[in-house]
Recover the amino acids of this structure.
């Protein structure tokens, strides 16, 4: 019960979960969505006597989540909720469908969010069951077809709910961000057009913060989308770790591997061993260029403590920079560019050996 040793205070919130029909010994993960779109793990607790508990500092404007890293038992989705200082969050579940566990609290943002989630709860239940079925059958085509159809239903409800709200609230902004991201990922132009129309009517003050800028870039990325076969925009300005402004035009005439990453992303960290090996074995053949999406101060502090052997840059735009122009499903994301400036390959996610494999195929 590693998460239970902290004494609660007025600045903390507490979570108590009670589950039925789930064996003890499974881990529960508490994490949060940062304002820049990244996530950060806060604590892990183990299910004992059907219970788990967390105590953590409350943060304004932040959505928290509970998931399990043990996917053999649970869906890959998370339970989403909001907190405030001193809040007591009670969670109850009667199965392994995490997304649909019950959340009870007096937090105003949670009540607003719940008014939306109640309308899509049955669809999310189906989505999780479809995921479990895919794990048995391994029928990817059927899984993608069913997932797209169900996500389309979610989008329809989401748009109606967004239009029905009188005020722009944190749950409203977060749902707009999620809907924009999913529509972009599935290349759903009809939904993107509707979301752009809604977003155009939002007051500028909501668009000027980090979440708002991320939504704007998702819906209307500067310069338009980039894909395999396009020419790479070398006129992109970046910061180096010492604070100097640089341009990617310095790499014209060389093969490039772009690596979008964050220090809070575990697969990004796992990729570094292979990148270090490639930086040595392919020296003079290709330039590896890291583009970190963390806040500048976080990146600089961690970068100095974790030196690397390839170029390490940051656009200073966090999660609403160039990475949004490539239609990937998150970070780590990789882009291979030819000496002539043509985009040869784009993908996201990491497994051991994948970077070497795709580089060999591309160049």
């Amino acid at each position: 019960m590693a998460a239970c040793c902290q004494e609660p205070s007025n600045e903390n919130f507490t979570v108590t979960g009670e589950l039925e029909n789930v064996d003890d010994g499974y881990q529960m993960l508490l994490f949060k969505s940062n304002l820049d779109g990244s996530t950060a793990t806060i604590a892990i607790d183990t299910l004992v006597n059907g219970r788990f508990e967390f105590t953590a500092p409350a943060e304004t404007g932040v959505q928290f989540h509970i998931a399990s890293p043990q996917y053999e038992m649970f869906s890959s989705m998370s339970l989403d909720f909001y907190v405030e200082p001193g809040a007591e969050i009670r969670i109850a579940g009667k199965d392994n469908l995490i997304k649909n566990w019950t959340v009870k609290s007096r937090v105003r943002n949670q009540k607003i969010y719940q008014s939306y989630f109640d309308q899509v709860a049955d669809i999310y239940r189906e989505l999780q069951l479809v995921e479990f079925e895919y794990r048995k059958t391994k029928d990817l085509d059927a899984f993608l077809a069913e997932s797209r159809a169900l996500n389309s239903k979610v989008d329809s409800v989401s748009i109606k709910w967004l239009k029905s709200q009188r005020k722009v609230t944190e749950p409203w902004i977060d749902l707009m961000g999620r809907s924009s991201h999913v529509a972009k990922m599935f290349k759903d132009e009809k939904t993107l057009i509707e979301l752009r129309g809604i977003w155009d009517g939002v007051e500028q003050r909501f668009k000027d913060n980090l979440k708002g800028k991320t939504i704007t870039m998702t819906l209307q990325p500067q310069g338009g989308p980039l894909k395999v076969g396009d020419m790479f925009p070398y006129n992109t300005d970046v910061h180096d770790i010492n604070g100097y402004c640089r341009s990617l035009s310095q790499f014209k005439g060389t093969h490039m591997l772009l690596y979008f990453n964050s220090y809070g992303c575990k697969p990004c960290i796992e990729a570094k061993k292979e990148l270090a090996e490639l930086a040595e074995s392919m020296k003079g053949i290709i330039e590896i260029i890291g583009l970190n999406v963390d806040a500048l101060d976080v990146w600089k502090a961690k970068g100095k403590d974790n030196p690397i052997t390839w170029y390490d840059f940051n656009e200073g735009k966090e999660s609403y920079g160039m990475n949004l122009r490539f239609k990937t499903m998150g970070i780590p994301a990789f882009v291979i560019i030819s000496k002539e400036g043509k985009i040869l390959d784009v993908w996201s996610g990491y497994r051991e050996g994948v970077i070497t494999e795709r580089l060999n195929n591309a160049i």
